[in-house]
Amino acid sequence: MLEPFHAPASPQKNRPMVAPDPDPHPATAEDPPAGPSLLLIEDDDLLARSLGEQLAGAGGFAQVVRAADGAEGLARAAERAFDVILLDVGLPDQDGRQVCQALRAAGVGCPILMLTAADSDDDTITGLAAGANDYVTKPFRLNVLLARIEAHRRQHRGSDDALFSIGPYRFHPATKMLHDPARGRKIRLTEKECGILKYLYRAAPETVPREVLLGEVWGYNAGVTTHTLETHVYRLRRKIEPDTKTATLLLTEPGGYRLGV
């Protein structure tokens, strides 16, 4: 069992700018992460390394992408969608709250948790007003941070106005739209296709039985059979799979379907 991680309170003055660690498995549209992803915008090299390892282990994130300053963080967020963003307030190039405002203005809808060494009420209010979902004061315990991250993820998954990451796509259920930022491509979904994706995303990585998916998306309708569901899944695959001959996003499992996010 991992020991609780205590993040040190980083000094706010004369903090050296640290070059970002190279990502050995960079995310691309051709090679999306198979699981939840997190963007960590933090210039403290020691904290970023330690926290990144803990988030990938105990936190269950398939990919933790690190950015060392605000400009790089904004660039990373523009490349692809993340499930969660951890954002330090005291960045070397700009205030983290300005970065948070810029992320929200750019349409980033995932939970953003700000990390700070300042714990005054004014700091917290300013951060929340900038668009942050939560404000976490250093030093913090890892299990508390993970619990707060998961709470915000649950709330986010339950919102139709949320923006979800599915492979290379940003999925916005409210507009029934998938957006592939790397290719500048938008895919419009039907109401049923949107319902299928939304329910599979919320159930991921579990397999959803066909009968359950039928009931959730179509409701009670004696005239609807599993063949109807299979037809919609086939059409949805043709829209979203990079290679329609080999499914990597919408997977068929014994008795049902699951999302390979």
Automatic annotation (TrEMBL):
GO cellular component annotations of the record: cytosol; protein-DNA complex
Organism: Roseospirillum parvum
GO biological process, one term: regulation of DNA-templated transcription
Name listed for the protein in its UniProt record: DNA-binding response regulator, OmpR family, contains REC and winged-helix (WHTH) domain
Pfam families: Response_reg, Trans_reg_C
Domain OmpR/PhoB-type: 161-261
InterPro entries listed in its UniProt record: CheY-like_superfamily, OmpR/PhoB-type_DNA-bd, Sig_transdc_resp-reg_C-effctor, Sig_transdc_resp-reg_receiver, WalR-like, WH-like_DNA-bd_sf
DNA-binding region of this protein: 161-261
Region entry Disordered, spans: 1-38
One Gene Ontology MF term: transcription cis-regulatory region binding
Keywords tagged on the record: DNA-binding, Phosphoprotein, Two-component regulatory system
